[in-house]
Every structure is written in C-alpha cells, then in structure tokens.
Amino acid sequence: GMATPEKATITLDAVQMLDPHRLKPDSIEMERIITVLDETIAKLELSSLIPRIIDSLDRFADVLGPEITNSLIKHQKLSNEMEHLLASSEEGDTMRAEEQWGCLCLLEQRVKSSVRNVLRLLRVNPSLCQALKYEAWVRKSPAEAFIKAFGEFRNFMLERLLTSPMEEKEKTQFMEAISLQIKKNTEAITALQAELAAAIQTRKEEILKKDNAVKDLKTSMQDLNKDFKAGIQQIKQEGEKQQKEKLQASQARCARLQQDIQQLGAQLNALVLEHRASELALRKRKCRVEMEIVNWIQKYDADMGEKQAEYEEVHAAYAEEKVELSLLMEKHAVLLQEYSQIEEERRICQNKEEEALKELNTMTLAATRIQAFWRGYLVRSLFKSKRKKKKGKSK
Question: What is the band of 92 on the pLDDT scale with cuts at 50, 70, 90?
C-alpha cells in the first residue's frame, strides 16, 4: 500500500539520523583521531604492497631508486631469516626453545623497524606511492579483508565522534519508535492471519457442500449401474459359453503337453543317473587328490622342520664364527699397528744403512783416489830419481 504521512516522517528521520556525513568534525581532537586512522589505513595498504613489490623488484627498481631498493632487499633478507627461524623452531628440540624465542623476539623488532623504515622512505614521495598502488593492486591482496575491516572501524569511529549525547538519545528514541512500529505491524499481521483462518473455514464449508452434491451424483450413478446389470448379465452368459469352448481346447492342449512332460521326465531321469555315476567317479578322484595333498603337506612340514633345524644350527655356527671374526679383527688391528711400527723402524734402519753405505762408498772412492794419487807420486818420484842417476853416469 502507499506510505502514510507518519511512515514518511519516520523514514525521513531515519535517513537524517543514520547519515554519518551530515555533520563536520567540530573539534581538533576529532580531526586528529580521524587523521591517525586514515594514516594507519594508508600505511596498511603500503605494508600489504611490500611483498608484491619485492617479488617484482626488477620491474620497480628504476622507479624506486637505490635507497628504497636496498631497504627492500634488507627487509626481504630479514623476512627470510624469520621464516627459517620459525620453521627450525617447529622442528627443533625443546632444549633451545628459550634461545630461539630470544632470537625470534630480536628478529621481530628488526623486521618492525625495517617496515617502518621502508614506509618512511615510500611516504616521502606520494606520487610514487600512488603509482605503486595502481601497479600492485591489480591482483587482490591477502590483507585486503583486514584493511576493509579497519576502514569500517574508521567509519564507525567517525560516526561515534560525530554523534553527540543528545543525538544518541534521539537515536535511542528513534529505535524505540521503530520497535513500537514493528509491534504494531505484528499485531496487524496476527489480525490478518485470523481473517485468513476464517476465510479458510468458509472455504471448507463450501467444499463440504460440494462433497454432498458429489454423493448425490454417486447415488444416481448407482441407479444407472442397476440398469446396466441386465446387459452385463447377458454379456456374462455369452462369455461363459466362449469360456467353455476355450476350456475344452485348453484341456486337449494340456493333455498333449502332459505327454511331452512325461517323455522329458524320462530323459531327465536317464541324464540324472548318468550324471550321478560321473559325480561318484569325480568324488572318488577328489578324495584321492585330497589325500595326496595332505601327504604332500605333511612331507612339506617335515622337510621345513628339518630345514629350520639346519638353519638354526647354521645360524648358531654363524654367530659363533662372527664372534670369532670380531676377536680376530681386533687382534688383526693390534698386529697391524705393531706391523706398521716395525715397518717404520725397518724403514729408519734401512735409511741409516743406505746413508752409511753411501758414506762408505764415498770414503772408499776417496781412499782409492788418494791411493792412486800416492802411487802416481811414488812412480813419478822413482822415475825422476832414475833419470838423475842416468845423467850422472853419462857425465
């Protein structure tokens, strides 16, 4: 139906009361609070863009500049260190839990400081922030839901700050008026439901009248059935006559079929006897096969028992030999160490002998040369003396 003047007034009041932008902040404190919330939203948006900027750092490097790029690279390293530390703390033992927790707290402070540093560098250039938002917000961010919720919280705070105590009281009275209107509407709905029930009852009474008329029609139909019974009786008699004729033909057919059944029964009995004889032979064969299988199983069990005993004996001998082998290996290690010491001593003795032999050879060679020189000297001396004697005689 059309809205009444009262309803139109309530709707207008609701629009005026629930509009959060109908007033402007009238104090510096309100403006400061809203400014802080807006700046927080801007920082949240920039913080959510940092991972995507890092993923596409090659593409944004020219736009960002060296200082911001280096800060982002340092932030990425800190993030990787934190992820590695968290993963190792989940898989590590409980002995290093305190040490890991201390490292994690320190690393968390460094990450927070790195984020603040990156945000400070980015917010210096508003046009750069706008360009990065346009480039990176093409895909949805995982933090978009949180940022949206924070924006709703900012609007809620603005509405609360814009609402004075008097307006709050008016809003409460407005909600009470709406509740009263809902109550009135509920009472109207109840009255309409009662009217609907009365209409349904009237409809049921009309249907009952129609049912009575249907009963009358059924009575008239029964009278018509009586009139048709005579014709039906005649048709029935003719049908019985045809039934007798078909019955006689059916009996003759049944006699023929009975004779066929007897012949097939005799053939069946012959086949049953033949199959029973073959079944008996198969049963005997099955019994023989089962006895053979039992014998084979018993023989297999006996053989496996013998094999198991033999295996246990071999295993025991193997264990003893293994113990002896370990002892021999220990003795071999000791002997090997002694042998290496003896070899080292032999090598030292051999080196000494070689040096002595070399020195002896040197001395022998020197003595031989000295002797040869001495013999030469003696021969030359003797030869000189002989020459002097010959010259004396000639004179």
Answer: low
